[in-house]
Design goal:
- There is one protein chain.
- The chain is α/β, with parallel strands linked by helices.
- The chain has 2 domains: 6-54; 61-312, 2-enoyl-CoA Hydratase, Chain A, domain 1 (Alpha-Beta Complex).
- Helices cover 48% and strands 15% of the residues.
- It is built from 14 helices and 8 strands.
- It has helices spanning 9-22, 34-52, 57-64, 72-79, 121-126, 134-149, 167-171, 174-187, 202-209, 227-235, 241-247, 252-258, 276-292, 299-312, and strands spanning 80-81, 98-105, 108-115, 154-160, 192-201, 213-217, 221-223, 263-265.
- Strands 1, 2, 3, 4, 5, 6, 7 and 8 form an 8-stranded mixed sheet that branches.
- Strand 5, helix 9 (202-209) and strand 6 (213-217) form a beta-alpha-beta unit.
- Helix 1 (9-22) packs antiparallel against helix 2 (34-52), helix 8 packs parallel to helix 9 (202-209) and helix 10 (227-235) packs across helix 11 (241-247).
- The termini are far apart.
- The model has no long low-confidence stretch (mean pLDDT 92).
Length: 317
């Protein structure tokens, strides 16, 4: 069963009618209904195109959070050969919200790192909905340093509403762990390519997305705080999340114009969840192209390019 968002209701009704007709081969008079199915399919496709051509920032937020959207594990399974997940931060514990380890992207050795939200109830609880604790970011630092030691390009797939704000996480130094992870990103001599595949929320995203290039899927969001959190801070009313999303410039197009991200990866009509394999394959190609731009650069040049990129943000505004 396909999951439809609230604003997709007209499309859902048309596609439901198509499914009903497909369950029949002929009507009561023995007349073929293939033509009727084709007309409805075209009408549903046109409605989908029209709907997704004018999405609001809040609707894009809903698409970025779609339960069927491909997650980190889906990218690993399709793109990465010989992936070897490495666990633990060597200080406190393992954090399943961030998964990483070495592997091969089309025979190119790389270090993978990313947030995993989980795809069902059990998985979401295990991975804490992609919200990492301090041990997650300390594990990320450990893997970044391994990537630097073995000259492996670092690929970071970002998909989190933000770092976990629980009492235990704060007691163990959440802010310090995020800061050290961000600092480690800036110090690496290997290229870092970050891709926002769903939500890129707050310091929880920046901690592994301080990269030489930041790419975004077309209907992803990247923001200093979730729309709900921003609404609570600004208006003391989380119900105004739609207003916050509209004013915060969180979409890929807005962030590209502002120079926050470097490139946008197009999604199929209807979002990444409607053609998961294509989105993942396209993302893999774009990552490889981005890595290749740094093949002839020295570690110092890679570091300098990354630093200059972030120092330039906001200068032209």
């Amino acid at each position: 069963m396909r999951t439809y968002l609230d604003f997709e209701k007209p499309v859902a009704e048309l596609e439901s009618k198509v499914s009903e007709l497909r369950s029949l081969t002929e009507d009561e008079d023995g007349v073929s209904i293939a033509d009727e199915i084709a007309k409805l399919e075209q009408k549903a496709h046109d409605a989908l195109i029209d709907t997704y051509s004018k999405l609001t920032p809040w609707q894009k937020t809903q698409v970025a959070r779609h339960p069927d959207r491909p997650h980190y594990r889906d990218y690993i399974e399709r793109l990465i050969d010989d992936f070897t997940p490495l666990a633990g931060d060597r200080h406190f514990a393992e954090d399943c919200a961030i998964i990483g380890g070495p592997g091969r992207l089309l025979d190119r050795p790389v270090m993978m790192l990313g947030h995993e939200k989980g795809s069902d109830t059990e998985g979401r609880i295990k991975h804490n909905f992609g919200m990492a604790r301090p041990e997650g970011y300390r594990k990320a630092v450990r893997l970044m340093e391994l990537a630097d030691r073995f000259a492996l390009p670092l690929i970071c797939l970002v998909d989190t509403a933000g770092a976990y704000p629980g009492i235990g996480a704060e007691e163990r130094g959440q802010a310090e762990a995020i800061a050290r992870s961000t600092d480690c990103c800036l110090s690496l001599g290997v290229p870092i390519i970050a891709v926002v595949i769903g939500e890129g929320g707050s310091g929880g995203a920046v901690a592994i997305a301080t990269a030489n290039q930041v790419l975004m899927l077309e209907h992803s969001i990247y923001t200093v705080a979730s729309p709900e959190a921003a609404a609570s801070i600004l208006w003391h009313d989380s119900a105004r999340a739609i207003d916050a999303a509209t004013n915060m410039k969180i979409t890929a197009n807005d962030l590209s114009e502002l120079g926050i991200i470097d490139s946008i990866i197009e999604e199929p009509v209807g979002g990444a969840h409607r053609d998961r394999d294509k989105v993942i394959d396209d993302t893999g190609e774009r990552i490889l192209d981005a890595i290749a731009e740094y093949d002839d650069m020295t570690p110092d040049e890679v570091r300098a390019q990354r630093r200059d990129k972030f120092m330039a943000i906001g200068r032209s505004l």
